[in-house]
Design goal:
Chain A has 163 residues and is of the alpha+beta class. Chain A contains 4 helices and 9 strands. Chain A has helices spanning 15-25, 54-66, 97-107, 128-137; strands at 2-10, 29-37, 43-51, 70-75, 81-92, 111-115, 119-126, 143-148, 152-155. The longest helix of chain B has 15 residues, at 53-67. Classes of the chains: A alpha+beta (163), B alpha/beta (569). Bound molecules: flavin-adenine dinucleotide, thiamine diphosphate and magnesium ion (MG). Flavin-adenine dinucleotide binds at residues 94-95, 155, 214-216, 219-220, 240-243, 257-262, 280-282, 284, 286-287, 304-307, 310, 324-325, 396, 400-401, 419-420, 422, 481 of chain B.
Chain lengths: 163, 569
């Protein structure tokens, strides 16, 4: 099953490689991973999307908790949560594409954030499925480049990951 | 008044002294010269110069295993650090508390492919509990404090502190923290009260109970609490290879070691019990064999471990108790005693009778009339001659298993071996660490002619440091454990398992300034041992026992098979 795991870790050099190393050494898979500092500069927050049986996910959370740099781990999939991912897509904007791309961006509530003679760059946020849907809706010949952040997640309502 | 400032090298030495370190095992080199200069000037701890960094780490590791204190090793950057890696991984697999200080090239040179630069943090990351690169002398003292704290608490393990050379020169006021607290690291020690209650109820209702006790009992110094609980309940106990000595072997409730080379009574009891109390043991593949086969029998499992990730890793358990073994066992005993009734005596009696039936197959029998020396015989004689009270280290192979099976360990921290990584070359340096920690105590290193050659250079260290170790070489002329697998599973194709061109070990021992003996007849075994532990008590004696080259370790569970599928003699 797909799980989205959120964690807080000390903002120390090498902390990220400990996590990446753990996943590769134990053969866990990482679908996506993103990390950035939080409002408290000494802490980073990471979101990992992984897949595995219940036993594997249990081991993953236990092994993550065991890493000395990790302060807190939460499997967001255990409860209600929200996921968002950011994607930037560079598309052709010549000929009839110029109008079509603008229309598609509007439909998916994307924004064109860079306009050039021959290209647009569209910014889109949403769940992974929505981003996939957008790419599928575009004419593949029009897509020049895509970049995605991987999912970030947060619990709904009172569910807070804080130390 | 401003504090006087110390160099990083001085700070390292002061930290070690503040931690009460008495022995450091190491080998110098460019990146640690400043630290060595400070070692020269101090008298708080003794530095033991080894002949290979791997040996320094094994010695520090065994020092920790035999005392419970944190072992300390010191090596230089680059090749010093890479040579140390096998030792670090060995300690990691067996959860041994240790601090390894590695030198590093100066901070401005890091990443420049500098002379003797390796990414020590990167290389050791998968085989340490934690590691630190100290980039600023201001962080040095606190980092050292953290290193010792992390190594010794929770599930113990090795911690590497990588110190660039310039940091050992930089100046800083020295303050060693008395204690440390880390928001990201808080090991649990007290078990969950509700789970403990459930466990007691389960134990009291057991009809066919077994206590399966592992290295955690030794690491947690909980032998006393284990004995108390087992005796109060009258439950049989089996030990893993790492748990030996955690329950006294001569005790009638003791089933011997379980697992791949475990006894019939231990393996059958483990397979057929209805309630299993696992104490500081991790359901290793060498212990339960095939987990599917193990799970075919219905049983309830209670598992005590400080490390939550050890629980339900290979086998799903019913009552997980995360906590320190000693505390949890004491709590279990207290509650069991308060219950006012023990387990059903009739059921337990019938179960123990069944166990005696298994035991009566005498699975550790061997040919005592043999005209060639049987390795098992040597271990039995060693047990007799040392009164069962020696510190015994071992290398890896058949001799290791015979040591585990035939030396009846009665006390914890007396059996020192590499179980998890299975590192040949561990035995001799381990004996050095043990002998340093226990001067005057009898220390035997049981080894094979393959293993001993992996760190044979340490005979020089033993000479320099006057370590009167007794090397018990069970010389079968084969990489015996490999040969046994080839006999059983590869139709006797003995590919590269014959050790040709063996040195004359007696001359070799003498060349290093020690006593050497070659023993070829069974009747000479005991006199040679008596001489070694008597007349030559104060010297290193290298006893080369020429043993039966075809002897195998029995029982044996083939890899991937279940506990009741043993190959018997
Ligand atoms: C050639 C060879 C053959 C082998 N054959 C066998 C065999 O037949 N039988 C056998 O048993 N082994 C055998 N082994 C060893 C095997 O590979 C494992 O190393 C061993 O079984 C593990 O022992 P353990 O389960 O006691 O765990 P250990 O590795 O000792 O782990 C200790 C456990 O206790 C926990 N712990 C530590 N401290 C505490 C504390 N204070 N409180 C609570 N929990 C704590 C840890 O978290 C860990 O889970 C063999 C090895 C070799 C090299
Ligand atoms: C460093 C290392 N290399 C290889 C092995 C694989 N191995 C396990 S036992 C063994 C044979 C050991 O031979 P010896 O020391 O003579 O002991 P014996 O089995 O004959 O008692 C080997 C090669 C190992 N455990 N460690
Ligand atoms: Mg051999």
């Amino acid at each position: 099953m797909r799980h989205i795991i959120s964690l807080m870790m000390e903002n120390e050099a090498g902390a990220l490689s400990r996590i990446a190393g753990l996943f590769s050494a134990r053969g866990y898979n990482i679908e996506s991973l993103n990390v950035a500092p939080t409002e408290d500069a000494s802490l980073s927050r990471m979101t990992i999307v992984t897949r595995g049986s219940d036993e594997v996910i249990e081991q993953i959370t236990k092994q993550l908790n065991k890493l000395v740099d990790i302060v807190k781990v939460q499997d967001l999939s255990d409860g209600c949560h929200i996921e968002r991912e950011l994607m930037l897509v560079k598309v052709k904007a010549t000929g009839e594409y110029r109008e079509e791309m603008k229309r598609m961006a509007d439909i998916f509530r994307g924004r064109i954030i860079d306009v050039a003679d021959k290209t647009y760059t569209i910014e889109l946020t949403g769940t992974g499925a929505k981003l996939d849907g957008f790419l599928e809706a575009l004419d593949p010949a029009a897509i020049l480049e895509t970049v995605r952040t991987g999912a970030s997640g947060i619990g709904r309502g009172d569910r807070v990951l804080k130390i | 008044m401003a504090d006087t400032e110390l160099t990083g090298a001085e700070i390292v030495v002061r930290c070690l002294a503040a931690e009460g370190v008495e022995h450091v095992f190491g080998y110098p080199g460019g990146a640690v010269l400043n630290i060595y200069d400070e070692i020269y000037k101090q008298d708080k701890f003794l530095h033991i110069l080894v002949r290979h960094e791997q040996a320094a780490v094994h010695a520090a590791d065994a020092y920790a295993r035999s005392t419970g204190k944190v072992g300390v090793a010191l090596v230089t950057s680059g090749p010093g650090a890479t040579n140390a890696v096998t030792g670090i991984a060995t300690a990691y697999m067996d959860s041994i508390p240790m601090v390894v200080i590695t030198g590093q090239v100066p901070t401005p040179a890091i990443g420049m492919d500098a002379f003797q630069e390796v990414d020590t943090i990167g290389i050791t990351r998968p085989c340490v509990k934690h590691n630190f690169l100290v980039k600023d002398v201001k962080d040095l003292a606190e980092t050292m404090k953290k290193a010792f704290y992390i190594a010794a608490t929770g599930r113990p393990g090795p911690v590497v502190v990588d110190i660039p050379k310039d940091v050992t020169q930089h100046l800083c006021a020295f303050h060693y923290p008395d204690s440390i607290s880390m928001r990201s690291y808080n090991p649990t020690s007290k078990g969950h009260a509700g789970q403990i209650k459930r466990a007691v109820q389960m134990l009291l209702e057991a009809k066919r109970p077994v206590i399966y006790a592992g290295g955690g009992v030794i690491l947690g110094d909980a032998a006393e609490q284990l004995i108390e609980l087992a005796r109060y309940l009258g439950f049989p106990v089996t030990n893993t290879l790492m748990g030996l000595g955690g329950y006294p072997s001569p005790d009638p409730l003791f089933l011997g070691m379980l697992g791949m080379h475990g006894t019939i009574e231990a393996n059958m009891a483990m397979q057929h019990c209805d309630v299993l109390l696992a104490v500081g043991a991790r359901f290793d593949d060498r212990v339960i064999g095939n987990p599917k086969h193990f799970q075919k029998e219905a049983r309830k499992i209670i598992h005590i471990d400080v490390d939550p990730s050890s629980i339900s890793k290979r086998v799903k358990v019913d009552v997980p108790i995360v906590g320190n073994v000693g505390q949890v066992l004491a709590e279990l005993t207290k509650l069991a005693q308060a219950a006012g009734h023990g387990p059903d005596p009739e059921s337990i009696k019938a179960w123990l009778a069944q166990i005696e039936l298994w035991r009566s197959q005498d699975c550790l029998k061997y040919d005592r009339e043999s005209a060639v020396i049987k390795p098992q015989f040597v271990i039995e004689k060693l047990y007799e001659v040392t009164g069962g009270d020696a510190y015994v280290t071992s290398d890896v192979g058949q001799h290791q298993m015979w040591a585990a099976q035939y030396y009846k360990f009665a006390k914890p921290r007396r059996w020192i071996n590499s179980g998890g990584l299975g590192t040949m070359g561990f035995g001799l340096p381990a004996a050095m660490g043990v002998q340093m920690a226990h001067p005057g105590a009898p220390v035997a290193c049981i080894t094979g002619e393959g293993s001993i050659q992996m760190n044979i250079q340490e005979l020089a260290t033993c000479k320099q440091s006057n370590l009167p170790i007794k090397i018990i070489l069970l010389n079968n002329g084969y990489l015996g454990m490999v040969r046994q697998w080839q006999e059983f599973f590869y139709e006797e194709r003995y590919s590269e398992s014959y050790v040709a061109s063996l040195p004359d070990f007696v001359k070799l021992a003498e060349a290093y300034g020690h006593v050497g003996m070659k023993i070829e007849k069974p009747e000479d075994v005991e006199p040679a041992l008596r001489k070694a532990f008597g007349e030559y008590k104060d010297q290193l004696v290298f006893l080369n026992f020429i043993t039966d080259p075809r002897e195998n370790v029995y029982p044996m569970i083939p890899a991937g098979k279940g506990l009741s599928e043993m190959i018997l003699i």
